[in-house]
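Standup notes, structure subgroup. Blocker cleared on the zinc ion input:
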Amino acid sequence: MDVKSRIEELRKEIEYHNNKYYNEDSPEISDYEYDKLSVELRKLEAEYPEFSMEDSPTKKVGGTVKRELRKVEHDVPVISLQDVFGKEEVYEYVNKMIVELNKPKFVVEKKIDGLSVVLRYHNGELTEGITRGDGVIGESVYENLLEIKNIPKIIPSKLPYLEVRGEVYISNKAFEKANKKQEEIGGKKYQNPRNLAAGTLRQLDPSIVRDRNLDIFVFNLEISEGKEFTSHSETLEWLKNQGFKVSPDFTVCETADEVWDYISKVGNERWNLQYAIDGAVVKVDNLEDRKKLGMTSKVPRWAVAYKYPPEQKETIVKDIIIQVGRTGRLTPLAILEPVRLAGTTVSKATLHNQDVINEKDVRIGDTVIVQKAGDIIPEVIKSIPEKRPADSKPYVIPNICPICGEATVRDENGADTRCINSECDAQATRSISYFVSKDAMNIVGFGKSKVEALMSEGYIKDIGDIYQLENYKDEILEKNVIGREKSVNNLLNAINESKNNNIDKLITGLGIKNVGKQSAKVLAENFADMDEVANANYDQLINLPDFGDTMVNDIIKYFRSEKYHTIISKLKEYGVNVISKSSETKSDDSRFEGMTFVITGTLPTMKRDEASSLIQSLGGKVSGSVSKKTSYVLAGEEAGSKLTKAETLGITIIDEEEFKNMIK
Ligand SMILES: NC(=O)c1ccc[n+]([C@@H]2O[C@H](COP(=O)([O-])OP(=O)(O)OC[C@H]3O[C@@H](n4cnc5c(N)ncnc54)[C@H](O)[C@@H]3O)[C@@H](O)[C@H]2O)c1
Ligand SMILES: [Zn+2]
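Run returned:
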């Protein structure tokens, strides 16, 4: 490829990732990989000025400005930092400064991985807070910043005007908590603390900021009207005294050795810190020197950011196992001796396919180097053949499927190995297709092709996931997984309606061996709800009409299985009816007839599925989303957006105690 095309390609690629990162808070590549692309582009542009361009991404900072937030112009352009990578580059920079300046000192600080904000104080009072935006115009996030405890709202010094800059971030603990919550509500996990912090700060609802516990480190004083300082370290000390939480453990150095020692020390403790850092910043300390050095259009000359390479560790491949995907693809997975890597313990890494295994020559028993791709997904970088056991053999993916034992085939023009036995891979698809079929839950319009499409996109793995689909409606539409809006709406409506089916349809849908439509009806007539059916003993079942010994044993075996318990608690949670409408033993209290409840948050004593069974047993319906038709929202601790929606629609919100009073 010629240079010009490469430059154009890099620009496009970088613009693409900028948008993902800054505007959508959802990057696709690691920062390290991104930084390498930027460096390559900058070097090429410097070398070939004839291809230079005014609006190249190397000349711009950050993202665009979000429309809904108020725009504010910056007093001081909010610029970025020049990246440096190796030890040599750090020495080169520091030594160059030592030659250029008169006995300079350097402040080295941790580079916190969050997002930049500028805080403004008038006469000692916080009056404005702005994101970086494109460096010239940012967005006001003042109301949100008021919710961050560690930002002082009033400071002792009443300077007419003070402007400071800091990094808003979310601690590892708060990040984990937020992800746990996502898991509980079945939402998508956040990728990393930086993106969550950025996403949160740009929320329009300040209460979300309070919930998520954002924090800040202040790292620079920009303007202090009426007060002079001589050095950066002095400003940090002063800011500390004013109640700011400043750059943690910054240090003042005089030589390149000292600077490098501190950078290495921070690098070693990096993964034990309570917050994410992506580098260390080396800054010239003297403020006069800084002025003299000035800046380029994008970065100051008085500082550089050293970026730590992704952490790599050695470990041992204990085994290679084969997983069979829903499409029949065989994926080799390396089982590793657990190793602490970039903040988490890693014990598995995908080896993708035979070609990758061959190329890296990874064998069972090998010592390998691992790192996390994109700071998230563990990968094997290479094996170390010198440390290999003498009798080791190259690894070959088996030519029989580990699930069904049938012969596998290698894709003609791809690297993948597959099990093409339709019985094998179709298993999951088949059981879901059966669940939605006419005899079972009768979800109209849910054909096999839709089931397959939703499965291969990862939206459904089991029958419980069907009732979560409405949460992904926008995504499903956007990706055109199962057609247009109208057909998606029809399908979601049909799914919702099926929640009210009598339990004979549900029992049929579970696909219990030897239990068809007819036997399911009998079960529904003889027990009050799913729990009773599931707890029925041999004697109770064998006395039912046409129930034989084999069938009864199959029923008992099924309802005792882990699989059933997982599925039923999901179904209950999503509001699928589990109460028999045809049972003679049914309770005749239907005080909730015609009412719809939505349950959100964690209730103090009841489990959500308990509450939902109770509502249904008293004739009410439980729905997953708040609408005008909702009668009550039963809300517990940490109820999220559903609560907000209920408030806007004016729907009565009750807590557990009030709910208990209703059922007394
Ligand atoms: N993965 C992707 O797709 C993708 C895309 C775009 C950008 N990025 C990442 O975004 C970053 C580039 O953006 P950038 O312009 O913010 O540059 P930068 O992150 O390299 O450096 C500048 C920023 O560092 C922050 N910072 C933290 N602690 C600091 C301290 N003690 N002193 C000074 N500054 C401190 C400031 O907010 C400052 O704006 C890179 O890390 C890059 O990898 C990634
Ligand atoms: Zn198979």
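Discussed briefly. The mean pLDDT is 89.
Next: hand off to the docking folks.
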